[in-house]
Structure formats: structure tokens, C-alpha cells
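User: Structure with NDP, C-alpha cells only please.
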Amino acid sequence: MMTDTTAVADLITPSWDYAPAPEARGLATIQASYGLFIGGEFVDPHADTSFATIAPSTEEHLAEVALADADDVDRAVAAARKAAKGWQKLSGAERGKYLFRIARLLQERAREFAVLETLDNGKPIRESRDVDIPTAAAHFFYHAGWADKLDHAGLGPNPQPLGVAGQIIPWNFPLLMLAWKIAPALACGNTVVLKPAETTPLTALLFAQVCQQADLPPGVVNIITGAGDTGAALVAHDGIDKVAFTGSTGVGKAIQRQLAGTGTRLTLELGGKAANIVYDDAPIDQAVEGIVDGIFFNQGHVCCAGSRLLVQESVHDLVIDKLKTRLATLRLGDPLDKNTDIGAINSAEQLERITTLTDTGTSEGAERWSPDCVLPDQGFWFRPTIFTNVAQASRIATEEIFGPVLSVLTFRTPDEAIAKANNTPYGLSAGIWTDKGSRILWTADRLKAGVVWANTFNRFDPTSPFGGYKESGFGREGGRHGLAGYLAANDDIEVAR
Ligand code: NDP
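Assistant:
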């Protein structure tokens, strides 16, 4: 529980405290060790190597997970290739049935998935329970509906699958990113080899069990666990027809270089430094909620996080006062507690990155503020932090921090807001807060960002395409547009293979 240091917050901080409301940890069964999921079964890795996955909130050892090497990648790709023919031969309606079945199983086992995600990732159970798992199920439901309607997706007559997709996902939304990748690939008739992030493999491995439970034909989904080398081996494999990557811009660029000229299709969903623009006519209390949701949701481990607040100068002090008051009420602590707002940072490495970048904020002259809160002794934790008086060119205004850190800049005119918002190598998302519909349209038209939210932030829906411009990547996930990344038009089937 946080206690506030400001006079305003003292007035509204309740004198009572929340009783602990922990979710039952026993809902999730964690095996001592996990193999690789290849060809519909769990198998030992070729070199008999493994790595540990831990709970970032306590540093407790959760399980040993198989480490896949290049030979294991080869086995997984071979299994996916073998399964591809049969999977493509199924009618769209038959494929759709499997996706519906998976979606329903995700719903049935939602509490188990939520507890496991929270343990392995460190995010609050409120978020895994209310956002990650339901949205993952929604992606399977949505794409199940597309499986027999691909002819009507506006992507040409009789669109064909690409073949085998190699998919690499990060640690911030482990199951949800898996769903964003696997659901459209399968709906379009592809088979997949997916590598989850090294620090969060457990829900992907539980998903493998769901594939078995759904009687998904062996080899349609293969899950190989490991670190960056495993991902690199997957990208380098010449049996892959498509690579879909979500992660850092640095690794995304390396993958793009590696695949240039190979004919392997590629979609990249990379970093961001989104501007969240608050005009002086905005409903300020709602905007403050949106700012909090924009940057402190999931500890700020969100590629589309509203990490740069652009606030009109005339309302700057009011917005910052209200924001500090609101931050003082956030509860940081045990991620399994249903009252927790801010969970643990996913890894020691990420905590180190956040700490280093925020230290540069102070040394570059910005003013730093955090609510006074007690951090747990064990695990990886970072106080929600606001920087004001931030220079446009400073590192905290330009680089993705990927943590609960907000950089506040000001503007005087709408043109200045646009110039500052677009002054970034990224182009993933943005937010606009104003009372006027015309101003929303005027602003959204001028923002170079793949997703623009108005008077809200961080809303995700499978029907809506998501993706970026510039160094935030290319290709879209979700919606009709997302199908295009897994289908070949008739005339490029030869090229794609
Ligand atoms: P990475 O880009 O390194 O990791 C993303 C995924 O790619 C993981 O599965 C990772 O494996 C894998 N990977 C790593 N190296 C390679 C490679 N050479 N070839 C193929 N796959 C690879 O991100 P990090 O986890 O290291 O995070 C670093 C920074 O990236 C963060 O601070 C944040 O700024 C940004 N980031 C952005 C995300 C986004 O959604 N935009 C998501 C995650 C991070 P492994 O986990 O085993 O290393």
C-alpha cells in the first residue's frame, strides 16, 4: 500500500487499508520440468539442456524448461511442414471448429491461465484475469469465424496459406501475443513453430496442453522454448515461409537484415514511444485515468504505452497535481492480490534497463517524482515515476523505457503538439484527449501512428488491426488486415514458398 507525500493526496488518501485478497495460487499446477512441444507431444530437447523460469515478484524458482537448439528447431519445423498438407486440406469450416474449441478451452481454463501468467510474468492478477486471458480467447473466437470466409476478406479470390510460420513473441503479454500470432496463422491454413520469451514460457506450454485437449492434429502448433539463440535459429531455418516477430526494434532490424532477399515473408511489431496528447478542453479527470492506464498498466511493459505525455501548457499544473494524487492511491505489491494495481518488473535485466534510463533522466535535468511506497524485499520492483520539465531531445523522451515511467512535455498550440508527437523514430500508437470531435479528427489525421485512441487508451479488440509505422515495424495483427500477413495472393504463392 502506498502512502502519499503530497499535501493534496493526504486529504484524499483513505485512512483504511484494503484487506489482502489473494487469488488461489493452487489453481495453476506447475510441473517441475517441461519439454518441447513438437509434433503434438512433449519431447526432450536434443542436447538435454534446460533453463529456469522464476516468479519475478519473489524470485522463486517455478520450473525447469527445455532449451531448444538448432536441431530441435529443425525437428519442430519438420513437424510443422509434415502437418501443413493435412491442415491445408481441411475445409475452412473444419479448421474453424478447432479454433472455436481452443477458444472455449481458454475460457474454461481462464483462472488457471491467469494465475500462471501472473506468477511467471509478475503482472497483477486483475490484468491477466480481466485483459490478457479473455482477449486471448477473443482472438481465437474471432479468427475461428474467419476460417471459412477467407474468400470474402477482400484479399483476392481463393487466397492460399503461406505454409509454415516461425513466430517469436516477447514477455510482456505472453499468452495474448501467442494468440495474436497463432490464431490468424491457423485460421488461414498455416502451421506454426512458436518461441515464447525466455522469462515467460509457462502459459505457452499450458497452451500446448490445450492443443492436445482440443485434439488439434499433431504438428499444427509446435512450441519451442529457449533464449535469443533459439529465436535466431528459427529465423535462420530455410524451411520457414513466414516470420512474425514482436519485440525490440534492435532485434527486429537484425531479423529484417537476415531475411532480406530470401523471399521469406516478414511482419514486425516493434517498440514505441507513444504521445498521449491532452488539450486544455479535455475532461481532465478522465484524461488522468487514461494517462494512468496508458503508462502504468502492465508496469508500462507495453509497446503502445502512452509513455510521452504532451499536455497543453495552460492545464499542465492541474493535470500533474491530479496525476500525483491519483498515483498515490495505486497499490503496488503481490501480483496475485486482486487489489494490486502495479506488479513486479518482469526480470532483473529489465529492471536494470529501466533504472539506467531513468537515471539519465535525472542527470539530463528533468524533475523526477514518485509516490512514497514501500517496495517488497524480494523480487524486481520499480516505483511508478513521473518526469516533468523533460527536454525534447533527452533519452527519456526519445527511447523506449518499457517500464512505469512517464515523461511529461508541454505544448502551446495544436500544431506544436503534432510536431512534438511525430518527432520520434517510432509510430505505433497515440492518444488524444479533447472535448471536440473535430479536434480529434484533425489531430488523428496528422499523427503518424498505427493506432490512435481518442478519450481512451490501451483498448484492444481482435477486430481492430494493430501495428506500426517507421521503427515500430510493419504489417498488422488483428482484424481483416491481419489475415493478409498469413495469406498469399494467387500470384505470389510461388514467391512466398
Ligand atoms: P527482445 O527483442 O530481445 O525479445 C523478444 C523476443 O525475441 C524474445 O522471445 C527473445 O528471446 C527473442 N530474441 C532475442 N534475440 C533474438 C534474435 N537474435 N533472433 C530472434 N529472436 C530473438 O526483447 P527483450 O526481451 O530483450 O527486451 C528488450 C527491450 O525491447 C525492452 O526493454 C523493450 O524496450 C523492448 N521490447 C519491446 C516489446 C514490444 O512489444 N514492442 C516487447 C519486448 C521488449 P528471449 O526472451 O529468450 O531473449
